[in-house]
Specification:
The complex is a heterodimer of chains A (112) and B (117).
Chain A lengths: L3 E4 L2 E5 L4 E7 L7 E6 L6 E6 L5 E4 L2 E6 L4 E6 L8 E7 L8 E2 L3 E6 L1
Parallel strand pairs in A: 2-11
Antiparallel strand pairs in A: 1-3, 3-8, 4-5, 4-9, 6-7, 7-8, 9-10, 9-11
Chain B lengths: L4 E3 L2 E4 L5 E6 L6 E7 L5 E8 L2 E4 L8 E4 L6 E5 L8 E8 L11 E2 L3 E5 L1
Parallel strand pairs in B: 2-11
Antiparallel strand pairs in B: 1-3, 3-8, 4-5, 4-9, 5-6, 7-8, 9-10, 9-11
The chains are: A mainly beta (112), B mainly beta (117).
Chain lengths: 112, 117
């Protein structure tokens, strides 16, 4: 009930292409869905987050799409750059101040 | 504007020793979370603390692990009698609780990489 499933595990995209990462959750009590970016040897950094009352949120080249009925959400990275090469984690939490449940991560490699 | 600070960044212990990991949250943040990341895996929640209180320790192993967040000073994650399986990256996050009840962002530190020989 607490699981968040993330796919694919890894992704290779050409510079300028679109990276798409998908996540699915089971617990309908989740109401906050952030995406984190992690570079090797560093801590996760918040990229963008969404709540179930909106279906899409865009910040620069990063867009979250949210499908409440399907219990799925995805991250789109437009115009992917080599500097975007990192591991991306989706996560979910319920209610204020609660723990984050993370997906397994997607390692993205952007080739120049 | 200092972010979440963790020390040490790297810690090597022999089996049976104690590991003590420290986390100083973002200034003004009163909520601290500890997560563990095994190699090539996602982060797993361990414990959630407020000052002088453990709010949720559902992810903490029942034995050998303890955490505290005293009124003064950093939060401490303590692992007694470490075993090889404890080797992982341990991340601390902090948040500023919104009185309006909305979930607030968790800001992560750089992590402590524990290696048990």
């Amino acid at each position: 009930q607490q699981q968040v499933k993330q796919s694919p595990q890894s992704l290779i995209v050409q510079k300028g292409g679109i990276s798409i990462i998908n996540c699915a959750y089971e617990n309908t009590a989740f109401d906050y869905f952030p995406w984190y970016q992690q570079f090797p040897g560093k801590g996760p950094a918040l990229l963008i987050a969404i709540r179930p009352d909106v279906s899409e949120k865009k910040e620069g080249r990063f867009t979250i799409s949210f499908n409440k009925s399907a219990k799925q959400f995805s991250l789109h990275i437009m115009d992917s750059q080599p500097g975007d090469s990192a591991t991306y984690f989706c996560a979910a939490s319920k209610a204020a101040g609660n723990k984050l449940t993370f997906g397994g991560g997607t390692r993205v490699l952007v080739k120049p | 504007n200092a972010g979440v600070m963790q020390n040490p960044r790297h810690l090597v212990r022999r089996r049976g020793q104690e590991a003590r990991l420290r986390c100083s949250p973002v200034k003004g943040h009163s909520h601290v979370y500890w997560y563990r990341q095994l190699p090539e895996e996602g982060l797993k929640f361990m414990v959630y603390l407020q000052k002088e209180n453990i709010i949720d320790e559902s992810g903490m192993p029942k034995e050998r692990f303890s955490a505290e967040f005293p009124k003064e000073g950093p939060s401490i994650l303590r692992i007694q009698q470490v075993v090889r399986g404890d080797s992982a990256a341990y991340f601390c996050a902090s948040s500023l609780f919104d009185s309006g009840g909305t979930t607030d962002t968790q800001y992560f530190g750089p992590g402590t990489r524990l290696t048990v020989l």
